[in-house]
Structure formats: structure tokens, C-alpha cells
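Appendix B. Raw example, untouched.
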Amino acid sequence: MPIKMTYALDFERPLIELENKIEELKVLSETGATHFNSEILRLEKQAKKLQAKVFGGLTRWQVVQLSRHSARPYFLDYLHYLFKDFCELSGDRCFADDMAIVGGLAKFEGQPVVVIGHQKGRNTKENMARNFGMPRPEGYRKARRLMELAARFSRPVFTFIDTPGAYPGMGAEERGQAEAIAVNLEYMAALPVPIIATVIGEGGSGGALAIGVANRVLMLEHSVYSVISPEACSSILYRDATKAPKAAEALKLTAKDIFQFRVINEVVAEPVGGAHRDKAKAAELLGKALKKHHQQLAKMTPKQLIADRYERFRAMGVFSVS
């Protein structure tokens, strides 16, 4: 099914225009006396070649754009495909409920689990309610409260990361944004249950890491994970936000890059052209990866899980002594 042009990125447009033309010919063939089978076959071969060319050589900036695609599946989409019997739990029991983070109880492969994820909006109204996926302190405190429940009832934790970063507004700072993130990092490090985190879109700075201290960290093929956005980085380094593509290359923030740095455990493939072109298939591929890692972690004791998590993060980074 071709993507609506309103959702198309610049480098996607030639492919989508070709796919739309193929669909038009198919409709004419089905409803009219004239058939265009040979032309359709020719254009389909051309579309496959163009698709391989476009998505086989993406720049890092183009991957950033794909990670933010407005039609890309969000946390609630994966929740629908991969988990059953979801029961949302709201509020941090201190201030309010933050809709930029959604979480609760669910079942994965028949086992009770806790799921937590960043959630963006599809339109202006939803984005205002979700704060564009940028949590405030109460969002991270809600996540910690859910993880406390997971520890109490020995339930694995699945987190889904998709945020530009923690909200930097005055109210958030007044209510202890940095402290809320820091406490989450400390708490997750010692959680006695399996934790699997997946970057499904943007993984922005501490806002992402606050639910990312896990035994296994996965990234979807066209997602990004970075301490700063390319736009902010270029504003600081080059004094010019329009040099974001250059900053993206320097940051090396794609899933392939992060895997090579051994910061994550696996890059999960997406359907050709990105997860937004086939949400069900993207969820199926992610589900297989989650099941594999969940089965591995289920064999560990609480002490082994904590030690595994500690060693994973201690092993990050490279240094040399001259």
C-alpha cells in the first residue's frame, strides 16, 4: 500500500510517486477493458531497483529523518501488536500523570510483564497532550513506580524509547527533572528482574536513558540514539542549525553505528523502506527479537541479572594510555 504523499520525505517521493502510478494502473486494469499487466510488471521491477538504491545508501541525516517519520509506528502501535491484556497505570503519586510516558501491566507470550514507553502524537492536539514525547519529571517517576511493581511481583520489564529528550521547561526543572532521571538510572541498575529496552525511533539524551538502563538494549534499523540532536549539536559546534546533516555524520548516531560501538545488543531489521511502510511486519520482526532475549534473560537469577546489567554498562567506552 503506497504511503500518502503528505507523509513522504524528500528522498522517498520518487519511489512513492512510482508506487502510486502502479496502483493507478492496477485499478484501471481491474475496472476497465484495457489491461496494463506488462507495464505494471515493468514498473514494479523499476520500483524494486529504486527502493534498493534509495534505502541501501541512506545518509545518517536521512536515518534521523526516518526515525522521526510522522507515519512511523509509535509505542502504542507496538503495544497493540505484541502485548495482550494491557492495563494502563497512571500517575506518579506525587504530582500528576504525564502522558508522554505510557505504562502498565500486560502479557507477552502469555507471561505477565510490565511495559513502559514514550508516546508521541499523530496530530497537533495529540502532540500537545503528549508534549511531543518529551516527559516531565512526573513521567519518569511514574516509570519508576511501575518498575517498583515489577520488582515486587517479579515481572520482566519492557521499555520502548522514542523521545527527542526530557522536557527542558521551567516547570520541569522546578520539579526536579535531573533528579528524576538520575534516580531512575540508579533504580534500574539494581532492579532484580529482566529489563529489555528498545529504541523504536528517537533516543534523545537523558530523556531516553532514563528508561534505557537494561540487560538488553535493541534498536530498530532506522532509529537513532544520541546525547544530543543534530540540530542542537550544529547550533553549538557550527553556530548554524542548518548544518544538522553534517552534525549527524559526526555524531554517528544510527543503529549500525551504536552497535559497532557495542552500546546496544542488536539491530532489529525493519521492512524495506522503513517501519512506517508495514507496521505489522515491523512489529513481527521486533517481537521475534524480544522473545529471543526474554528467553535468555529468564534463565538468570536476580543476582545474575543485576551483575549482567552492571558488566554490560561497565564494558562501554574505549580509552588508551600513552
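End of appendix B.
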